Amino acid sequence: MTLAMRVPIFLLRLLALGAAVTATVIMISARDTAQVFNMSFEAKYTNSPTFKYFVIINAIASGYSLIVLFCPSKTSLLRFLLVLDMIVTLLLDSSISACLAIGQVGKNGNAHTGWLPICNQVPKFCDHVTGALIAGFVASLAYFVILLCSLHNIFNLSTLKP
Q: Do the Cβ atoms of 156 and 1 come closer than 8 Å?
């Protein structure tokens, strides 16, 4: 792989690392309390398995990004990294999709099932979740571009071989 392709991929991996770490930290720090009918309740990410999944996947993506930044860029590792990049991209996409669904219910509720919106009572929590989802989306987008660049590199290397 040429230096002209290594530098953008390195920068994209740094961006993905920063975004995934940011999404993890923001979601973990998401916490707010509210009083409803003289009862106090606390909204935090551990209340929802979906938010836990989001945190775990972003932590895995952060660790993977950190490890790959220090891996040598040998042609024998490119295909293995391509597969791992695809897995991380798909995991990030699935965690964001699940969180968006829960966030939609939290923001608007669901009249058919009787679920009430909670973002009016805990706006700080909802703002943190929104910020974490934006950072997670940036990480996912960066990994998607990394995946496209890796595919391009592998197909160029395979066509160069006799």
A: no
CA distance 30 to 48: 12
Query: Three-state SS for 105?
Result: helix
Model pLDDT for residues 74-108, shown as the tens digit of each residue: 667 778 888 999 999 999 999 999 999 998 988 88
CA distance 162 to 150: 21
Q: What pTM, to 2 d.p., does this model score?
A: 0.87
Structure tokens at 40: 């106090």
C-alpha closest to that of 146 among 1, 38, 15, 3? 15
Phi, then psi, of 41 in degrees rounded to 5: -135, 150
Which helix (H) or strand (E) element contains residue 33?
Answer: strand 31-36
